[in-house]
Specification:
14% strand, single chain, alpha/beta, 252 residues, 7 helices
Length: 252
């Protein structure tokens, strides 16, 4: 589910480090979203599934802006899973084409708005041209500090863990040298904080192989609203629900 990460508004993002946003510990640092329901949104309206994916992508720009206003430092969006390759070939082609289009048309706008772009997931099944485009967008925006937008494309939590294990084995470390800190440095998300809040749209209650390590103490918010209709009101509900939670991390 990708097209443009375009952010449209007459009001620019406020340029400040995410660290300065953290004035209230009851607000999440890192929000991750499983964007679900594009196809059902389209079916409900009697339109092709491709229209649903495009509508979902159109929503990304609004959602990123909203989280920036709430001073959320990190937003990660689950766009395409390792299992999504099992979808019909035509739909897979639409999704990968939308990603290419987004990178081509929107990277410089995001850069201007102070958004840092990151990608997590395996690149090997993507075309060389698309791999280069992803790498270039990440490189261009790497010093931005207003908000970090991470796109999980061709991502799977189990694949990430396997890749981390392989990377550690290649270092030749003994089992006694392997710690949680060492392991985290070999994950795709190295350098990002753990997820505080996971939001899933379209009424589903599954984790779907998303950020398995990073969400070990995340709070969850599920809504029946399809992703293309997910808006600021739903974000407000999710953040309000988060503020009511007591995060004990195993303590009383």
């Amino acid at each position: 589910m990708k097209d443009s990460f375009k952010i449209e508004s007459s009001e620019p993002f406020r340029q400040m480090s995410y660290k300065s946003h953290r004035q209230n510990a009851i607000s999440p640092d890192h929000v991750a979203i499983i964007m679900d329901g594009n196809g059902r949104w389209a079916n409900q309206k009697g339109r092709p599934r491709a229209d649903g994916h495009r509508a979902g992508v159109e929503n990304i720009r609004r959602i990123v802006r909203c989280f920036a206003r709430y001073r959320i430092g990190f937003v990660t969006l689950f766009a395409f899973s390792t299992e999504n390759w099992n979808r019909p070939e035509g739909e897979v082609e639409i999704l990968t084409n939308l990603l290419a289009e987004a990178i081509d048309t929107q990277t410089h706008l995001l850069h201007k708005e102070g958004v840092r772009i990151k990608h997590i997931g395996r690149l090997d099944r993507l075309s060389v041209e698309l791999q280069d485009a992803i790498t270039n967008s990440v490189e261009l925006t790497k010093h931005n500090d207003n908000i970090t937008l991470t796109i999980a494309f061709n991502y799977g939590g189990r694949a990430e863990i396997i890749d981390a294990v392989r990377s550690i084995i290649n270092l030749g470390l003994s089992h006694s040298e392997i710690t949680e800190d060492i392991f985290e440095k070999h994950l795709y998300t190295s350098g990002l904080p753990d997820v505080d809040l996971i939001i899933r749209t379209a009424g589903e209650m599954r984790l779907s192989n998303f950020l398995l390590w990073q969400s070990h103490y995340a709070e969850y918010f599920c809504t029946d609203v399809f992703w293309p209709d997910f808006d600021e009101n739903e974000i407000s509900k999710a953040l309000a629900a988060y503020r009511r939670r007591q995060r004990r991390y195993g303590k009383l």
